[in-house]
Amino acid sequence: MKEKIFSLIEQGKYADVRKEIVNMNIVDIAQLIEELDRQKLLVVFRILPKEIASGVFSYIPNKLQKYIIESITDEEIKNILDELFFDDTVDFLEEMPSNIVKKVLKNTDEKTRKLINQFLNYPEDSAGSIMTIEFVDLKKEMTVKEALEHIKKTGIDKETINTCYVIDNNRILEGVISIRKLILSEESALVEDIMEKDVVYINTHDDQEKIASIFKKYDFLSMPVVDNERRLVGIVTIDDIVDIIDRENTEDFQKMAAMEPSEEEYLNTNAFVLAKHRITWLLVLMVSASLTGNIIRKFEESLQSVVVLASFIPMLMDTGGNAGSQSSTLIIRGLSLGEITLNDVFKVLWKEIQVGCLVALTLSLANFARIHYLEKIDLLVSLVVTITLFFTVLTAKIVGGILPIIAKRLKVDPAIMASPLITTIVDAITLTLYFSTASRLLGI
Amino acid sequence: MKEKIFSLIEQGKYADVRKEIVNMNIVDIAQLIEELDRQKLLVVFRILPKEIASGVFSYIPNKLQKYIIESITDEEIKNILDELFFDDTVDFLEEMPSNIVKKVLKNTDEKTRKLINQFLNYPEDSAGSIMTIEFVDLKKEMTVKEALEHIKKTGIDKETINTCYVIDNNRILEGVISIRKLILSEESALVEDIMEKDVVYINTHDDQEKIASIFKKYDFLSMPVVDNERRLVGIVTIDDIVDIIDRENTEDFQKMAAMEPSEEEYLNTNAFVLAKHRITWLLVLMVSASLTGNIIRKFEESLQSVVVLASFIPMLMDTGGNAGSQSSTLIIRGLSLGEITLNDVFKVLWKEIQVGCLVALTLSLANFARIHYLEKIDLLVSLVVTITLFFTVLTAKIVGGILPIIAKRLKVDPAIMASPLITTIVDAITLTLYFSTASRLLGI
Questions:
Q1: What is the reported pLDDT for A234?
Q2: A214 touches chain B (CB under 8 A)
Q3: How far is residue B210's CA from residue B130's CA, in Å, rounded to a whole number?
Q4: Distance (Å, rounded) from C-alpha B130 to C-alpha B222?
Q5: Do A275 and B358 touch (CB under 8 A)?
Q6: Are A49 and A19 in contact (CB under 8 A)?
Q7: What residues does B138 pair with on adjacent strands?
Q8: What is the CATH number of domain B266-442?
Q9: Backbone φ and ψ of B196, nearest 5°
Q10: In chain B, which stretches have pLDDT less than 50?
Q11: Contact residues, A window 340-369, toward B, CB-based 8 Å cutoff
């Protein structure tokens, strides 16, 4: 299919290209267009029927959108904007430099221009910035027949007709009704009698993470967005929510690996930007880890007399770090999915103490057997290592379990209490434990 | 609202409870019921109208489903099963012990029983195990008017009518058409002429991760599932996909923190099970980290003569581990979102070398300034530490960037190449570098 179209393009048979392409899914057309060189891309884009062109436009990367807008006429820009859904228009303008925004706004009427500017001003990641205004609104006095006729007349320009919204004359949200309910009801029934009145809605300023969790809870396909007077101003649809869930997860992964979060795809980001996102945390953690080094320096003499002690430092540090990361990861994830709340701090503490004891005991015994019997390490040194390991693992589990909850309570993102920071904290505790146990037991 | 219902329940005014509750969203009813003690839960559940009861049933936790089935009559079980969507029935049975499954199957007719058994046999996480059979099927010879009448007649029992599926007499999938398209078209138009023929479909054995990525790519609300003869056997809906995305992400988080993945919520899992999921990897990593200790033991004499070297071990190990984890996290995430493919290995390598040099240089200079000028560490020792740090960070970036891709190529889940394993590998490299540089530069 794709090969065939490429070869038609190569031969310049654009009428045939058009015939083939219009039956494809717009996402596939967008992907195909991306692979063309820029000149051919422009030719192919221009032969697309305008409804398809605008659909394709919303699926190509920002830099190609920019290129196309720069290259086409004002007339063509108007055509695309006419067909583009409002939320896609706003999404695209948010990523464009000001000269492109100007060129686009010049081609819209006064009213749309005002609306676009209003939407561009909503806080990033708020309901206002992700909602669309193309929804079906009904009146409660309508009969089902009238409602369906209204949908038939206006539905063509709407992003979805699957859920319709009932508003009064002041645009106050009064109810929702699904297209399914409308179709399955008697034609003479009143919308008021069959609509759902217990409407779950969101405010323009609500954060996208909160919105995503409401969608998940109720399995919604779309949700109404209202302003402070409860006037319906837009809707958010599930396809945007799916993108948000992925983005929020990526952000968590990045924070948990001690990076500044970024929405850019890895391969599209240049080395300087990547380095910038990574360096701050690495520096902070490097300096904190150096402080751990000071603990060793304090015990330099003990170490010199029993230098074999140094060889267990990596194992103790790594095991402590890993044990702590396991706990912190589970708690961070639980907090972000809403399965663990701030009130669960004592439940978590108690659970981590139990798990910690079980895990610590198993690891210590395994370790003692290995180093004393297998590697023939002196009994007292083996004991020092084993006792330290036990308390290291236990402490790591407790610290890893509790710190994310404390962070959340202090309104800090729990995701930063992940592996790297936990490891650094646990390391300091481990080495202090290790050398104090050593000096007591070995009398050094 | 909730308080009011609780107090009505307390007073035993169940007629009033019923009146209040039927206007609520089923998800909220489910949440309310969960908070009741078991006896009252049963009373409230029994007064619910049967369509609501089955909806609520699909939203309560497995142990309450089990309790309800154990406590109600066969007649009541039949009523619930009648209204329950097929995929919810299968989901629930998958989690039940065999005596409950038997009790439920006893209350279904021969045909349903066979179908349920067939669905329970689909591999876990396959399209077959998550699809539902309640979809609208149309024939291409129908007019729009006939199609809408057909939907009106049969739609009430379907999970969704938003997308309808066109099949021939052998149930072979021929096209899809949205309810929107049907409503907005002329009544006399033929389904064949307005349906989409370029249908994206999945096979019963396709894995849920693949399915989720197709949903995301095309922004679908539902997708048809076909068997090997391309016969339509079910559909998958977006609400299930959203759950799957969360589950897959949780699984990645757990694997990346060196745990065996588990779908149980943290607070509902007992300490032994939690410990079991964590212990294997901790043991494996503990033993590998011990091997790192052997490197130190090999250089015991050098260490004894310049014991201050030991105090930089934590900083070197932690920084190397962190630098590697950053890279591996980005690559693992990119692989799982499909932004990075196996063919990008050289692009990743080159990018990580660039980023690695930038980051390594910054960290080394900062470190040299700090230890030599601030902490007055001897010049040669400072140089040893700084040179080691540079190469540690660079190696960590390369190892962290490449190992996840190699894992994927070997058909191993890249997520295990995360922080813990990378840290252990990088530690060994770091210490070898450290002591060989030290023995060369310090002549020990």
A1: 93
A2: no
A3: 13
A4: 12
A5: yes
A6: no
A7: B166
A8: 1.10.357.20
A9: -90, 125
A10: none
A11: 340, 344, 347-348, 351, 354-355, 358-359, 362-363, 366-367
**Which of B221, B325, B433 to mutate to probe the A interface, most A CBs <10 Å?**
B325
Chain B closest-CA separation from residue A349 CA (Å) = 11
CATH class of B2-121: mainly alpha
| Nearest-neighbour CA in chain A from B106: distance (Å) | 31
Which residues on neighbouring strands pair with residue A231, listed in sequence order? Answer: A172
Per the document, the length of chain B is: 444
Q: For chain B, positions 285-304, list CB contacts with chain A under 8 A.
A: 285-287, 289-290, 292-294, 296-297, 300, 303-304
Interface test with A, best of B58, B134, B242, B291 (most A CBs within 10 A): B242
| Token representation of residue A250 | 């990526």
Q: Cα dihedral sign for B2, B6, B11, B16?
A: positive
Task: Say whether B359 and A279 touch across the interface (CB within 8 A).
Answer: yes
Query: Using CB atoms and an 8 Å cut-off, which of residues 311-340 of chain B contact chain A?
Result: 311-315, 317-319, 321-323, 325-326, 328-334, 337, 339-340
A273 touches chain B (CB under 8 A): no
B213 touches chain A (CB under 8 A): no
Rounded to whole angstroms, how far apart are CA atoms A37 and A64?
Answer: 11
Q: Is B433 on the interface with A (CB under 8 A)?
A: no
Token readout for B131 is 């699809």
Gap between the Cα atoms of A64 and A88, Å rounded: 15
Please tell me the distance from the alpha carbon of residue B243 to that of residue B370, in angstroms, as a whole number: 49
Angle at B303 between CA B301 and CA B374, to 5 degrees: 155
Report the largest interatomic distance among the alpha carbons of chain A, rounded to a whole angstrom.
95
Q: Do A286 and B366 touch (CB under 8 A)?
A: yes
CB pair distance less than 8 Å for A286 and B367: yes
Tell if the CB–CB gap between B322 and A285 is shorter than 8 Å. yes
Dihedral angle over CA of A387, A389, A394, A397, nearest 10: 170
B145 close contact with A: CB closer than 8 A: no
Taking the CB of residue B348, how many other CB atoms lie within 10 A of it? 22
Choose the closest CB to B317 out of A27, A278, A317.
A317
Output the tens digit of pLDDT for each of chain A's 444 residues. Answer: 778 888 888 888 888 888 888 888 899 999 999 889 888 899 999 999 888 999 899 999 888 999 999 999 888 888 888 888 888 888 888 888 888 888 888 888 888 888 888 888 888 889 998 899 889 999 999 999 999 999 998 888 888 899 999 999 999 999 999 999 999 999 999 999 999 988 999 999 999 989 999 999 999 999 999 999 899 999 999 999 999 999 999 988 888 888 888 888 888 888 888 888 888 888 888 888 888 888 888 888 888 888 888 889 999 999 999 999 999 999 999 998 888 999 999 999 999 999 999 999 999 999 999 999 988 889 999 999 999 999 999 999 999 999 999 999 998 888 888 878 888 899 999 999 999 999 888 877
Q: Which residue of A has its CA nearest to B185?
A: A152
d(C-alpha B79, C-alpha B282), whole Å: 49
Residue matched to tokens 């994830």: A333
- Domain(s) labelled CATH 1.10.357.20 in chain B stretch across 266-442
- H-type helices in A299-378, by residue range? 300-305, 313-336, 345-368
Binary contact (A300, B308; C-beta < 8 A):
yes
A24, A257, A286 member nearest B325 (Cβ) = A257
- Please give the Cα distance from A303 to B316 (Å, whole number): 18
State pTM to two decimals. 0.83
Domain spanning B137-236 has what CATH number?
Answer: 3.10.580.10
Query: A333: helix, coil or strand?
Result: helix
Q: Where in chain B is the domain with CATH 1.25.60.10?
A: 2-121
Which amino acid type is present at position B302? S
